[in-house]
Amino acid sequence: MNKKIFLLISTLTFLTELTFGHCQVPCGIYEDAVRVYQIKEDFNTIKKAMYNIKDLSKNENALSLNQSIRWVNTKEEHATKIQDRISHYFLIQRIKPKKDKEYNLYVKQTTLLHQIMISAMKCKQTVDSKNVTDALKLLDQFIDSYFDEHGKNHIKKIDH
N or C: which end of the chain has fewer CB within 10 A? Predict the structure, then answer.
């Protein structure tokens, strides 16, 4: 195979993994803590975008308008990444429907994830950083309901 074609295919494969997070092939390779960290990082990016949009809106010139638009696009992209990561990774692949005693935990986890997705939607619609703060609180509640102590420690290790 031509080296250029191989490089192109390798690059596209790598970028696809970055874009879509994780495949839906039952490979058994899951990094839940990393996905949570990515969600936190996305919310922090949204918060920064909100701040910059507010700051840039004080000026009425073409450069400020251009930069504001770029920050709005960034905010939208990261909110969508959160929604996609939650739905494609956690809701489809990781959280399985439960019965009997575990049903309440299942409801709690899926409800928290749904609420986080709604917060991400609100982040698209506004520049109110309260939506980010609320979402991060919900994410902490999800972490408490989903992870054992080892998983929580792994998240803390990644955070620092």
Answer: C
